[in-house]
Amino acid sequence: MEFETIKFTKEGFVGKLTISRPKALNALNSQVLDELSSAIDQINDDKDLRVLIITGEGRSFVAGADIREMSTLSALEGKEFGNKGLSVFRKVESLKIPTIAAVNGFALGGGCELAMSCDFRIASEKALFGQPETGLGITPGFGGTQRLQRLVGQGYAKYLIYTAENIKADKALQIGLVQEVVSVDELDKRVDELAQKIASNGPIAVRLSKEAINTGAQVDIDSAIKVEEYLFGLSFSTEDQKLGMKAFLEKGKADFQNK
Questions:
Q1: Does the pLDDT value for residue 161 go beyond 90?
Q2: Is the terminal CB of the chain with fewer CB neighbours within 10 Å at N or C?
Q3: Which residues contact 176 (CB under 8 A, 6 or more apart)?
Q4: Using alpha carbons only, what angle is made at residue 155 by residues 153 and 161, rounded to the nearest 5 degrees?
Q5: Using an 8 Å Cβ cutoff, are 176 and 32 in contact?
Q6: 1 band by pLDDT with thresholds 50, 70 and 90
Q7: Rounded Cα gap, residues 86 and 95, in angstroms
Q8: What are the residues whose beta carbons fall under 8 Å from the beta carbon of 157, sequence distance 6 or more?
Q9: What contacts 29, CB < 8 A, 6 or more positions away?
Q10: What dihedral do alpha carbons 202, 205, 206, 210 form, nearest 10°?
Q11: How far apart are the two ends of the chain, measured CA to CA in Å?
């Protein structure tokens, strides 16, 4: 993949997508969103990938949407720009394989929303999170009003959005916005460690588990249980299930084949 504002690398079963506009603190403009959309489409078609890491270049994850671009938009253009971001982040959220946000610095506005579109978030101790849009006279527009409350509850979501305050990594961990906080020097190592651990498990089982969680979260508990029942049964139709259970009984480790 060749892009101007993002980089993609692949090592074994793990892909890494880096937002690369360091001089603009990786702010999301239309070009970044278009390239991110194209990259996610290609990643979704890659049958060898089992995990995707998303991060930012330099001292920022993503500092937000590009305010210079947004400042001249009409109401209709603002809606279209919001729709572009919402569509791209929904693609990230709906990606078949697990996604990990490696939050190395500023994750504000659209950056916080991109991180929340990933399955979980590992932050460096220097990471900063927030939805500062109301301080600019707008609302969060890339999913912030919806994903934030689902992750941290309505109280904290309203607190952060209404006040436009930013929070440090330790507070983000306390309220459940991130799953781990590590030192700056340890971030890449820890995220790679987690990615490899996920990639070593049954890839079909991991994808089906993601589908069960994401689908179940949108329906009532009785419907959700039916989803789990179906996908649990489906996992028994795979070669990986046989490999995994055989290895367990023989006290070995399965070499899953993604079949």
A1: yes
A2: C
A3: 151, 152
A4: 100
A5: no
A6: confident
A7: 14
A8: 145, 148, 149
A9: 5, 21, 65, 66, 69
A10: 180
A11: 26
Q: What is the pLDDT of residue 4?
A: 94
Q: What is the pLDDT of residues 97-123, one digit of tens each?
A: 999 999 999 999 999 999 999 999 999
**pLDDT one-digit tens code per residue, 202-246:** 999 999 999 999 999 999 999 999 999 999 999 999 999 999 999
Nearest-angstrom CA–CA distance, 159 and 162: 5
**Positions marked active-site:** 113, 133
Q: What is the side-by-side strand order in the sheet with 106-108? A: 60-62, 106-108, 128-130, 166-168
* 17 vs 66, higher pLDDT: 17
Q: Which amino acid is at 112?
A: C
Distance CA 196, CA 190 (A): 10
Which ranges of the chain does DSSP label H, i.e. alpha helix?
Answer: 30-45, 67-70, 75-94, 110-117, 144-152, 154-163, 169-175, 187-200, 203-216, 221-235, 239-249
Average pLDDT, the chain: 96
